[in-house]
Please model this.
Amino acid sequence: MTLRILKIAMVGTFALTMSSAAFAEGRQVGQYSLFPEKTEELGNIMQMVFKTLNHSSRSYEHEVNDALVKMTLGHIQFAKDNDLLKEIVDDKGETERPMLARVAKMIKQTGEKELALKAVFEQTTCHFQLVLETEMQPGVRRFVSPFGHVLTQTVRMGQHDLTEEEIYNVWQKPLYERYGEILGVPLEVDPWDPETRLITVRIKDFEQVSMR
Model:
């Protein structure tokens, strides 16, 4: 995983280097960048990636999504300690309702249920910044639970007393089901598998409809 991220980071660095070379030759800054108006922002992002990966030697092997993973774990732990697990799922659903309600209208107009999964997994940074890789198939999204790597460390240090299976039962499964209710498209979550640690979300009774 770290090697893959590092390769991506090197590609980004190369793009920024090319932009600097273009500037040196009197050409437009960012000419070789996919985001010519965000060259400085991309540079800051790449610096953050390198700092994160370099920090691994000090305690444990960090991943780029560490901060978001830890924030989510802290949120769930607080809810567990204060008997608010149902409430945080309901609250998250209501927070996302404005976005999901718009998609629900589109689904009703087109009959394209796949839009439900796109809204939850592809069109929101809430997912793809937390989960670095997601397998996408018609009517199905699948990814490895993002919490185990950090939990190994935080449970050892006494920061959390959660397990991945517990998080699946009290947070992930009920949350995706709640999203489905708001979208008007029932979403089913496969049972937890401790061997694969895969989270698989399916559209119930999925039948693909052409958008044409």
